[in-house]
Specification:
single chain; 487 residues; alpha/beta; Rossmann fold; Nucleotidyltransferase, domain 5; 3 domains; eight-stranded mixed beta sheet; six-stranded mixed beta sheet
Length: 487
Amino acid sequence: MGKSLAERFAALPKSTRDDWLLQQDQQTLEEIDRGEWWWLARPEQIPPEGDWLVHLALAGRGFGKSRAGSEWLVQRALDHPFDRSGTPTEYLIIAETLSDARLICVEGPAGILRVLDRKKMIRNKDYRYIKSPKPMIVFECGTKIYCEGADSADVGRGYNAAGAWLDEIAKWPRPSESWMEGIMPSMRADLYDDHPRVFVTTTPKPIQLIREWVDRDDGSVSVVRGSTFDNKSNLSAHVIAELEKRYAGTEIGKQELYGDLLDDSNSMLFNRSDIMLGRMDDIPDNIRRIVVGVDPNLTGEGDEFGMVVVAADTDNDLYVLADRSTPVSGRAAAVLAWKTVAEYGADKLVYESNLGKVYLSEVLRDAYFELVGAGLFPAGSQPPMKAVDSRLGKKTRAEPVAMRYEQRRVHHIGVLETLEKQMINFNPDTGKHSPDRVDALVHGCRYLMSLERKTVSVMSVEKYRKRQEDIYSLSATSWTPGSGFDY
């Protein structure tokens, strides 16, 4: 992708930079000094010329979508403050939730308020920011920017809008209905020299509305694609390294980092070839931690008591040692779980905390103390059990584990036929619950992944001072692109 003017300028020889700066007027120098968008934006962050209605920015995390949306909407409001009848125009910011619209799109580090501050617009003079009942920005001339959450298909209904910024539309609960029933019909302001336009910034997911927009060939939709790494110079090197480690070689990585619109013909999370290529015959010597993940059925209503033994080595690769799932329930299942913990010398029994069975932890505790009395565990010890939060959806919880399989960093020891069959047949998009064995596997893997050591970088005093000098010194001889603004 392209470089910003600031990046291109910084790459020039010093003498060339000096000569160019001497030729600029005072206003241009002031705009450079405060980091105006024309100076800092990469070409792909600015919507193109043309007669489009929708500009669709499909890009990975960290690309700079929020900054692009904020800058575009503010400039749009300043360029078109009135409609043809002289009435102040109104604009919309719509995010997945009203909280997202406020905290990210307006108040965030790359939000509307930061853009207004950089433009030297004074709050309560040039504009007012009203937070209740819904966030709203009112310019001195009467032009308004309203915030909405996409929790209803009717979002946008009733407005006479001159433009909108739609953020992360792929995450909305009903994106097609929201666009067709609420937002699109509201884009009806009669402007002097233009028509209403919509800027959509989103990490791509293969939803129907995005596919329809991408397939348009009538000029009504403009599409730009981009990756996390296009904005690498403005992102933490440690975060970039971690993202590459987590997502490298995975389908979800293509979507989340590179902004690819994936083929939705196969919605299965786990792939047979990933399991087969990661398979091993023996347990390695560098195992450092073992857990037993369980997905209990304590009611005897037909499902299995999922029970999967998972280990992690010193390199944070995961190993599925055994599938001990059983059709029994209640106390008998809890006793089997603790016997499996003892057999493998596991550090924890990991279980889902809110299955609607409030007595779950009590059953597990009672079974543990029963086995203490039988001499299986030390007298006076407490049950090494860990409840994992199940508020996340099944797909969201399983995706990080599936990515590890794609990276060949999860290894089955031998063939675990029933578990593997459930894995490759698990489609999280059908709305059906995931099999107990898969849930037990996910609980164990996610717990071990959560324990992986985080890398911390310590900056020396000298390096910190040098960095601050680079950030805050803008002169004819030195320029640091991106200074003072969080993308």
